[in-house]
Amino acid sequence: DAGITQSPRHKVTETGTPVTLRCHQTENHRYMYWYRQDPGHGLRLIHYSYGVKDTDKGEVSDGYSVSRSKTEDFLLTLESATSSQTSVYFCAISGQRERSYNEQFFGPGTRLTVL
Amino acid sequence: DAKTTQPPSMDCAEGRAANLPCNHSTISGNEYVYWYRQIHSQGPQYIIHGLKNNETNEMASLIITEDRKSSTLILPHATLRDTAVYYCIVRVATGAGSYQLTFGKGTKLSVIP
Fold first, then answer.
1. CA-to-CA distance for A104 and A70, rounded, in angstroms?
2. Residues in chain A whose beta carbon is closer than 8 A to a beta carbon of chain B?
3. Dihedral, CA atoms, A76, B41, B90, B70, nearest 10 degrees?
4. Are strands B9-13 and B18-23 parallel, antiparallel or unpaired?
5. What is the torsion angle, in degrees rounded to the nearest 10, for the CA atoms of residue A28, residue A36, residue B43 and residue B80?
6. What is the pLDDT of residues B82-113, one digit of tens each?
7. For B17-52, how does the pLDDT look when each residue is reduced to its tens digit (9 = 90+)?
8. CA 20 to 30 Å from B110, out of A16, A69, A103, B85?
9. Alpha carbon distance B20, B59 (integer Å)
């Protein structure tokens, strides 16, 4: 258990509303990532963070923003949710111990439905 | 786009070795091969990774060909709990010491009693 949690675990929202997903870690990992997974597909990177207030875009960043104001929390925001953002969102962490520089530990996921 | 190619599905008898192939013919010299698995809709779980040499840990073995264009993940004694989607991934550096894992569609492994 890498000490990573996501909240909420499930959310249903309407098109056009803002949504924020939270990833929380307790083991001082430097790197944090947000992925999305759609049916029949693998995970795709949305944004990642390499330190407090240091973030960068992944391959599917349009429509998403992130913030990391402290080591333990990485927030993913959908400013105006669309139906195409219905997905399962996974947070991942890495970089706390020598071994974990080579491993990304994944959270349990957040299932988001945009109606 | 994923830099790997895997068969969409495989079956394996319980107790037998499961050999999952992966092609990564465009891999660069400093890129690692990673394997993860995903059981049901849980978060992916790290299995093993390697660069050039074969690797073994408590979960599996990774055999990488000499030209590094393909690899095989071996689960030595598959159990029903090994039923999952297995992803072969080429790790790409994103800068600042972090890296991106680009997941393809993976191989759905079904372990048969």
1. 19
2. 30-31, 33, 35, 37, 40-45, 48, 50-51, 54, 56, 58-59, 88, 90, 92, 94-95, 102-109, 111
3. -170
4. unpaired
5. -160
6. 999 999 999 887 766 777 888 888 999 999 99
7. 999 999 999 888 888 999 999 998 899 999 999 999
8. A103
9. 14
